[in-house]
């Protein structure tokens, strides 16, 4: 959760307006197809420029590692230069997010998350991902997608909350949620045939830039492995948007890409050592800037607080809010907001939810901080119901806020109030435990084994599975002198 973001909603409206121009047939230099899009390259560039800061705000911001950023740019530029759009300016950004993701916007904006970078094994695999996204740009998929309506594609947990808890005008924050889901929808909107086309173009650019196209296949294998491990581990949301979800049917794509790459597979550069040194020291998993979920507990080391959701709740940390889903259809949302009033009861009734006329106002203390709850009418999936709203004063003009809804609010309200009461500062031990995990590169020594190295991994669970996955060791072979990724604290 990175609070105090600007709402994203404006972006969706702007896109809708931009997409109403006339359709002109254009022959695409990358695909040879005649395409109909309402957008000129200049309009694409303008939209990309406008969207870029909003995408950064929504997807964790740019990862603050200039050397890694420069490395990704260098690889990306080498691919852009051999594409059909030689004059296109490409802008590459590493996102500070552990969600495995990569996507492109009109105007040549290409994004890759550090979660995805952790999975790749060498520069050629990174080139496969960047080449694929560049393919979406050169084939003008990114522009075509803007010509379709994008609102209403909302799925998953977020949509349940949003569709959801339309808090009337009470939620400027809820508007923010609408916006963020809109953005998620537009990074997921490609068709199966567009995905294949992007794979083929990506492989073409890889080969032209001298990379081994086989790396496209090996990275898709890694994505499959990641998907399988993710499903196996508890507490990870299946609904989190990832490169997997937005680029469907990875297994088919592996096969298709392998066939396409056959002519050149096994030839070209892989650049394993350069890649390993580029990702050495990169944060793995949650960053302390954003807070993290551990089971049903949310911890934010930077802002120094934690709270505990009821047992069985699944929490998801998004840049705008922490969202939660309970076992019996309960939903919750947590975020922060600036407040004029220092009194949570006044804030709740006169600022946040003033137009909803909240009832049943209660004041109490949550670990020494003034808190208030009230009930208010909301619409959940079109049905009107009551939600429990809570505000906790954190000082310096800030309120932490919860929204809870449940098919049986009466039965759940004590548990919900317990969540509010659990909000507190971290202990010294919790702060120490919140030191982030990082990728550290280890050179395999004679006598090193997969099990031995896996024991040095400091991930919460499935250390051996993570070690094998992050290093592409499914065939179980370690060679002395080989560089491998470990994940350790500090
Ligand atoms: Zn794609």
TrEMBL record:
<keyword id="KW-0479">Metal-binding</keyword>
<protein>
    <submittedName>
        <fullName>M48 family metalloprotease</fullName>
        <ecNumber>3.4.24.-</ecNumber>
    </submittedName>
</protein>
<dbReference type="Pfam" id="PF01435">
    <property type="entry name" value="Peptidase_M48"/>
</dbReference>
<keyword id="KW-0862">Zinc</keyword>
<dbReference type="InterPro" id="IPR051156">
    <property type="entry name" value="Mito/Outer_Membr_Metalloprot"/>
</dbReference>
<keyword id="KW-0482">Metalloprotease</keyword>
<dbReference type="Pfam" id="PF01476">
    <property type="entry name" value="LysM"/>
</dbReference>
<feature type="domain" description="LysM">
    <location>
        <begin position="440"/>
        <end position="486"/>
    </location>
</feature>
<dbReference type="GO" id="GO:0046872">
    <property type="term" value="F:metal ion binding"/>
</dbReference>
<dbReference type="InterPro" id="IPR036779">
    <property type="entry name" value="LysM_dom_sf"/>
</dbReference>
<keyword id="KW-0732">Signal</keyword>
<keyword id="KW-0378">Hydrolase</keyword>
<dbReference type="InterPro" id="IPR001915">
    <property type="entry name" value="Peptidase_M48"/>
</dbReference>
<keyword id="KW-0645">Protease</keyword>
<dbReference type="InterPro" id="IPR018392">
    <property type="entry name" value="LysM"/>
</dbReference>
<dbReference type="GO" id="GO:0016020">
    <property type="term" value="C:membrane"/>
</dbReference>
<dbReference type="GO" id="GO:0051603">
    <property type="term" value="P:proteolysis involved in protein catabolic process"/>
</dbReference>
<dbReference type="GO" id="GO:0004222">
    <property type="term" value="F:metalloendopeptidase activity"/>
</dbReference>
<feature type="signal peptide">
    <location>
        <begin position="1"/>
        <end position="18"/>
    </location>
</feature>
């Amino acid at each position: 959760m990175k609070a105090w973001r600007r709402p994203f909603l404006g972006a969706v409206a702007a896109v809708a307006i931009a997409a109403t121009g006339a359709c002109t047939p254009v022959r695409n230099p990358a695909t040879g197809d005649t395409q109909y899009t309402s957008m000129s390259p200049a309009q694409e560039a303008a939209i990309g420029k406008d969207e870029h800061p909003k995408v950064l705000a929504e997807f964790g911001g740019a990862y603050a590692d200039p050397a890694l950023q420069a490395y990704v740019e260098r690889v990306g530029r080498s691919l852009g230069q051999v594409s059909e759009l030689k004059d296109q300016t490409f802008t590459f950004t590493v996102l500070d997010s552990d969600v495995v993701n990569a996507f492109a916007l009109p105007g040549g904006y290409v994004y890759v998350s550090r979660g995805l970078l952790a999975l790749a094994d060498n520069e050629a695999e990174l080139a496969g991902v960047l080449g694929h996204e560049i393919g979406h740009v050169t084939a003008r998929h990114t522009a075509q997608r803007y010509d379709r309506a994008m609102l209403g594609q909302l799925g998953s947990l977020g949509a349940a909350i949003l569709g959801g808890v339309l808090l009337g005008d009470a939620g400027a924050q809820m508007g923010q949620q609408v916006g963020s889901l809109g953005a998620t929808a537009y990074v997921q909107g490609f068709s199966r045939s567009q995905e294949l086309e992007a794979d083929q173009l990506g492989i073409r650019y890889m080969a032209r830039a001298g990379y081994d196209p086989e790396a496209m296949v090996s990275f898709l294998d890694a994505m499959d492995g990641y998907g399988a491990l993710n499903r196996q581990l508890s507490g990870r949301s299946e609904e989190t948007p990832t490169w997997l979800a937005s680029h469907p049917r990875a297994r088919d794509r592996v096969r298709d890409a392998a066939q396409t790459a056959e002519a050149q597979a096994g030839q070209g550069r892989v650049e394993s050592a350069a890649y390993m040194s580029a990702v050495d020291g990169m944060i793995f998993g949650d960053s302390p800037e954003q807070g993290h979920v551990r089971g049903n507990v949310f911890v934010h080391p930077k802002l120094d607080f934690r709270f505990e959701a009821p047992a069985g709740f699944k929490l998801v940390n998004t840049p705008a809010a922490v969202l939660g889903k309970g076992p019996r259809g309960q939903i919750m949302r947590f975020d922060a907001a600036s407040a004029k009033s220092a009194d949570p009861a006044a804030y709740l009734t006169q600022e946040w939810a003033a137009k909803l006329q909240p009832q049943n106002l209660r004041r109490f203390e949550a670990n020494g901080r003034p808190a208030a709850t009230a009930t208010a009418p909301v619409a959940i999936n079109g049905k009107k119901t009551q939600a429990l709203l809570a505000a906790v004063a954190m000082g310096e003009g800030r309120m932490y806020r919860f929204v809870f809804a449940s098919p049986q609010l009466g039965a759940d309200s004590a548990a919900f109030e317990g969540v509010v009461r659990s909000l507190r500062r971290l202990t010294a031990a919790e702060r120490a435990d919140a030191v982030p995990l990082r990728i550290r590169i280890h050179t395999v020594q004679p006598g090193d084994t997969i099990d031995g190295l896996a024991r040095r991994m400091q991930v919460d669970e499935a250390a051996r599975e993570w070690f094998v996955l992050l290093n592409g060791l499914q065939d179980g072979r370690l060679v002395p002198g080989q560089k491998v990724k470990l994940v350790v604290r500090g």
